[in-house]
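Give me the fold.
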Amino acid sequence: MDAPPATLPPAAPYDCGTMLLHWLHAVLILGLIGLGLYMAGLPKGEARSAAIGLHKSFGVLAFALVAVRLAWRLRHPPPADARLTAAEHRLAAAGHRLLYALLVLVPLAGYLSSSFTRYPMRVFGVVLPKAGREDEALNAFFNATHGLLAWTLAALIAAHLGAVALHALQGKPVLARMLPGRQARG
């Protein structure tokens, strides 16, 4: 049986920097998903172009933020939670690795899609270099890849939230560890 010890110490919260980066990134990613869904339904024109420009700008920001989060995580590993079983720890680690991979791959595919259009790649008005020149086939491939990975990320976020809810129902309030000013209890 793969159960945690009978006497459990209180679960340590994450550090303030990790919390800030997590919630900032969560808001940014959820906003990007919402904006992506919104702009997909817009007809071609000024409003759609503005939404795409905003999506690209915040997508590049999300890509930069994941780099900061990964660097932070190397120096600030997650605190142990003795309330979780070894299997739960393995699943959580695998889920977090997949989340981080998608947080890198989704904006990368979006950038590559934009790199193969005739339009300049602007981030908050600043033109960025592109990885290629106009190529409809490559643009379509990377655009489809971006969409597929974004839906996969959305599904994984839903699973992540589901795991948080499941742990709460099991009396293991893991969310409290990621909330400022709160101490999770064992």
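The chain has a mean pLDDT of 92.
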